[in-house]
Amino acid sequence: MPKAKAKAKTKAKKEEPATAGLGDKSVEAAERYLEYDPVSKVTWKLGDATPYLYLANIFESIAETTKRLEIAELLTNAFRTILASKPTDLLAAVYLASNTIHPQHEGIDLGIGDATLIKALAEATGRKDESIKNDYKEAGDLGSVAMASRSTQRMMFPPPPLTVTGVLKEFRAIATTDGEKSVDRKKGMIKKLLVSARECEAGYVIRSLQGKLRIGLAQQTVTQSLAHAIVLHGDAGKKKKGAELADALGAAFDVLKQVFSECPTFDQIVPALLEVGIEGLQERCKFTPGVPVKPMLAKPTTGVSEVLKRFEDIAFTCEYKYDGERAQIHLQENGKVSIFSRNQEDNTAKFPDLINGLKRYIKPHVKSVVIDCEAVAYDREQNKILPFQILSTRGKKNIVESEIKVKVALYAFDCLYLNGEPLLREPMHKRREALYSAFQEVPGEFFFVTEKTSRDIDELQGFLDESIAENTEGLIVKTLDATYEPSKRSLNWLKLKKDYMEGCGDSLDLVPIGAWLGRGKRTGVYGAYLLACFDEDGEEYQSICKIGTGFSEVILEELANAMNPHVIDGPRSYYKVSDAMKPDVWFEPKQVWEVKAADLSISPVHQAACGLVDPQKGIALRFPRFLRRRDDKEPEMATNSEQVAEFYNAQANKQEFNANGDDD
Ligand code: ATP
Fold it and tell me: Region Disordered: start and end of each range (predicted)?
């Protein structure tokens, strides 16, 4: 097989920070932007549809570097060139670079199975399925196979070139094709795209359809490049240079990040940017009921005394941390109610009981509202919270209320919108007031989270003990003056779990990427699994431990059944695993499992967070134990390598803390 130019990227990028703010590098970058002439790079007729090949070639250049600043510059300049030629093509280019086709909460994803892609590729190139599969096994990346396959094609009447808007339109059509013979129809559409593809295009068509570009282009970089391109294209940006320009670019990125977290739809944001620029964006794109915000998350802490130390001069409150699943409930003016998961998935159909119950706990003056709650399995006879495992036995689709066996109670902890007013930028104490003003408790159905505001160490320790006795995970400590920070793991929210007190740290959410066949009592299922964390920069899964503990026989069988459809021929090119690890089978990254470990150690074998704590070695979990499946998380939402490094460092700090006899 001829070697394709670009290969899926596996190297982590650590050289520069993700954000370009102030500092020499961003000033230098700003100066370089001034040297770039966007129009001169328009190699097609100015104003005509942007060729997909232009973007695919940019992806190729991005694949060849690991430097974040360079990647951001390449993409920013590409967006500028598109803006200079045909601004309305920018939306499609942003979607294609983000490898999405619709806003996340609409739940329409690409992610076509390999079998369909291989068949389409075989038909488009005249190659045999088997030979493509062999190449795939060898290369570990179907995109490279597609690129190499293209070069053997001769075409008498070449079809018209692909365009960025045309490709996005086709992707959307492929993703929404359903019903009779939908697999065949999808295959037909994919084949058509592949037949039209030139040079490296086929590789990116395939990778996009698989759901991942694998060129090391993070969503944050796309957002940054979009903000920068808009500033550089605008009249105000053109007048600035040096530090002033770098400042304007940094500020624009901050605005766009904030707006995107509150209104996560490019369909709204990009046209607004074209019309009113960064300056008018916040006014145009606001948080509205019906569109979920990414949840604010908490940082781990090691004990009550650490909380008191961190929040020495800051007012804070403590709430029970309930163990269920996050439910963001939206009531729109038109009466429509939606429930979104932690993952912005629309879970409305899963909870008809909550939707019907709403009228009992919402006050009559409330016309529109968004609240953040934890939905918890609840025993209404004994009036007690049930463990998370019970909640996970509840059905997920086509739920009929009369058949629901596992009852759920809502524990509300935040109010993000009330009667036409977004409250995200209001302080916590105001949002709490809004929550109390809009709802009333209904025993067994709707509660406000149990909270305590105190600075007394014994009182707080007692509250933590009570929270554990009540079947919750512990506490979340929240500063009372902080705004809601969508999608941030913020220091304004600290989680205090029982496990931290026991010195074994937080659990990790990891992805099974391989397994060993079981022996003896475990014959017929997998006896152990290879788990990985996710590295966001390098877009790779890094092995972190081999796990064989914590599984009941039933669970082992359930997991084997769930994983078997995802067995692949060999490790993907984006798995970072030492040669010493040789599982019997490999899996597609599909699931997330919550795992607890005794501690973390520097490892000669495992690759997690390699380069972050030790320059050469990774981190491994010692004595890992399976806790549960996390069906509410996508593989890329698994614990990331930076968190693994943080856990490792926190453990080292805690040991030091204990050695000084200072801990609680
Ligand atoms: P975990 O794996 O423990 O759920 P996470 O990364 O999903 O961790 P954390 O930052 O640990 O999230 O905790 C926030 C989650 O805790 C929220 O998504 C929510 O579902 C849940 N939660 C329960 N009680 C509360 C509360 N009182 N305030 C905020 N979040 C709460």
Answer: 1-23
Residue recorded with tokens 């890094």: 542
List CB contacts of 587: < 8 A, sequence separation 6 or more. Answer: 512, 513, 514, 515, 563, 566, 567, 568
Distance (Å, whole) CA 495 – CA 488: 14
Chain segment 613-622, per-residue pLDDT in tens: 999 999 999 8
**Dist. CA 322 → ligand 1 center (Å):** 8
Residue nearest to atom 20 of ligand 1 (CA): 326
Cβ of residue 546 lying under 6 Å from some atom of ligand 1: no
Q: Using a 6 Å cutoff on CB, does residue 323 contact ligand 1? A: no
Q: Which domain holds residue 136?
A: 114-210
383: buried, middle or exposed (CB in 10 Å: 19+, 13-18, 0-12)?
A: exposed
Residue 433 sits in the same domain as residue 412:
yes
- Residue 368, domain CATH: 3.30.470.30
Q: Whose CA is nearest to atom 12 of ligand 1?
A: 297
Residues marked as catalytic: 321
The pLDDT value given to residue 651: 77
Task: Determine the distance separating the centroid of ligand 1 and the alpha carbon of 154, expressed in angstroms.
Answer: 56
Out of 301, 342, 449, mutate this one to test ligand 1's pocket (max ligand atoms within 8 Å of CB): namely 342
Whole-prediction pTM value? 0.80
